């Protein structure tokens, strides 16, 4: 039951209707005995600053930020963690106490660490594995950092060569080896193309046995990229694993305790 004492946690994005985050965090709060409500709000880019001001005015516990706001959200916070600064994008807003006791709205990025766990633990990527990363937005920046920490050899592909170069430089700073990959072990789609049922460029649609197709889109029917990968015999994954891991880390920022991962996973399975 929601009361005046219930904390608000918001999801800000456009679109948000497909998001699994409300189900995940509602289940997590219930399992942990936290009196909080997680609500999704569709916010146009030109209204993001107003929405963040609203969170401040309402005394919200925190927020998640998703497409297309991850880079813009970084500039709207009072401070940013080292992780958010490195990635250059934020997916989590939380409060921490400043040097004089004031509440400081802090931007964080839990996407990179969440994806790193997915790459290592679920997909078994190791240093030296070849990966093609498609995209240049906030999700691609997080993926670049995750791949750098794995030690992968990375080729970045994007619609604009300049943007691809920036992502490649970020991956290299995080520990990746820039490379031109002929036959990648893994291809990661870090664009929202799958949300609209759109395909990736042709070179990414012919993966086969022994290769991995990872689409960071989730919450929709199988994307054309994953469908093509499965037809060719590749291992296919959507963004669900990363979603759970980044959500668990965000929960820790807001609540200050370990998240109930089993409840989070169960919420998506129902």
TrEMBL record:
Molecular function as annotated in GO: NADP binding; shikimate 3-dehydrogenase (NADP+) activity
Active site annotation, chain numbering: 70 (proton acceptor)
SDH C-terminal domain location: 239-268
Keywords: Amino-acid biosynthesis, Aromatic amino acid biosynthesis, NADP, Oxidoreductase
InterPro entries linked to this entry: Aminoacid_DH-like_N_sf (IPR046346), NAD(P)-bd_dom_sf (IPR036291), SDH_C (IPR041121), Shikimate_DH (IPR011342), Shikimate_DH-bd_N (IPR013708), Shikimate_DH_fam (IPR022893)
Enzyme class: oxidoreductase
Pathway involvement of the protein, from the record: Metabolic intermediate biosynthesis; chorismate biosynthesis; chorismate from D-erythrose 4-phosphate and phosphoenolpyruvate: step 4/7
GO BP terms, alphabetized: amino acid biosynthetic process; aromatic amino acid family biosynthetic process; chorismate biosynthetic process; shikimate metabolic process
Sites where the protein binds shikimate: 19-21, 66, 91, 111, 218, 246
Family: Belongs to the shikimate dehydrogenase family.
Name listed for the protein in its UniProt record: Shikimate dehydrogenase (NADP(+))
């Amino acid at each position: 039951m929601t009361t005046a004492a219930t904390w608000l946690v918001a999801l800000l994005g456009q679109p948000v209707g497909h998001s699994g985050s409300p189900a995940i965090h509602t289940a997590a709060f219930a399992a942990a005995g936290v009196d909080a409500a997680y609500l999704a709000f569709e916010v146009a880019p030109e209204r993001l600053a107003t929405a963040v001001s609203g969170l401040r005015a309402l005394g919200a516990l925190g927020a998640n930020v998703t497409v297309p706001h991850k880079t813009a959200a970084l500039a709207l916070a009072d401070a940013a963690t080292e992780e958010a600064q490195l990635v250059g994008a934020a997916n989590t807003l939380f409060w921490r106490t400043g040097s004089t006791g004031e509440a400081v709205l802090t931007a964080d990025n839990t996407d990179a660490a969440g994806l790193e766990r997915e790459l290592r633990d679920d997909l078994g990527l190791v240093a030296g594995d070849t990966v093609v990363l498609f995209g240049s937005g906030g999700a691609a920046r997080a993926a670049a950092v995750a791949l750098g920490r794995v030690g992968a050899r990375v080729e970045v592909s994007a619609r604009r060569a300049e943007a691809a170069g920036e992502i490649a430089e970020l991956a290299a700073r995080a520990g990746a080896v820039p490379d031109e990959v002929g036959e990648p072990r893994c291809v990661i789609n870090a664009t929202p193309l799958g949300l609209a049922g759109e395909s990736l460029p042709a070179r990414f649609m012919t993966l086969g046995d022994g290769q991995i197709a990872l689409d960071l889109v989730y919450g929709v029917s199988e994307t054309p990229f994953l469908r093509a990968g499965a037809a060719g015999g590749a291992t296919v994954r959507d963004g669900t694993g990363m979603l759970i891991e980044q959500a668990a880390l965000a929960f820790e920022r807001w609540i200050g305790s370990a998240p109930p991962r089993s409840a989070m996973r169960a919420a998506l399975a129902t």
